[in-house]
Amino acid sequence: MGHLNEVNAAFVDVAHQLAGDRGASARRLGSYAAQAANSIASGRFTTVLPETVLSRHEVLVEPDRLDGRRLAVSCGWAAVLVTGTIILLSPLGVAAELVVPVALVAFIALVYVLLAVRFGLSEATRLTRSIGGFFSAGPPL
Question: Mean of the pLDDT values across residues 40-59?
């Protein structure tokens, strides 16, 4: 049963990568499905996928943690970029009353743009809506 859990982890890992790179992930998913079908048709239930495929997919990340990591990386880069921009603009003598609100809006927009560039618009929208649902009083989206 351990081998089938590893096969499942390989399929789940490739399925999670569909949001970022649909073409390559879909080809890899199709290749895994063909290999698994051939192995099952041949009666090789203990080697549904070769060990070379399974060794690449050792760690299974839960979808919530994967979303959290994506958001954290984007927020980190956005914070660095906004902070760097503020530091570069500080010698110009721009008033703090103007810099703080602009920096907040720039941070939110930059997080969305970074997510959209890396994972696509639909995934960026889904991730930002999940954050909005967390802070709202209603049920999560």
Answer: 70
How is 51-79 classified by DSSP, letter by letter? Answer: HHHHHTT-PPPPHHHHHHHHHHHHHHHHH
Buried-exposed string 19-39: b where 16+ CB fall within 10 A, e elsewhere: beeeeebeebbeebeebbeeb
Q: Measured between alpha carbons, how far is 129 from 123 in angstroms, rounded to an integer?
A: 10
Q: Helix or strand or coil: residue 34?
A: helix
The pLDDT value recorded for residue 109 is 92
87/3 Cα distance (integer angstroms):
53
User: What is the rounded distance in angstroms from the CA atom of residue 9 to the CA atom of residue 59?
Assistant: 8
CA 111-80-69 angle, to 5 degrees, is 50
Confidence of residue 63 (pLDDT cuts 50, 70, 90): low
Contact (CB, 8 A) for 122 and 128: no
pTM of the entire structure? 0.53
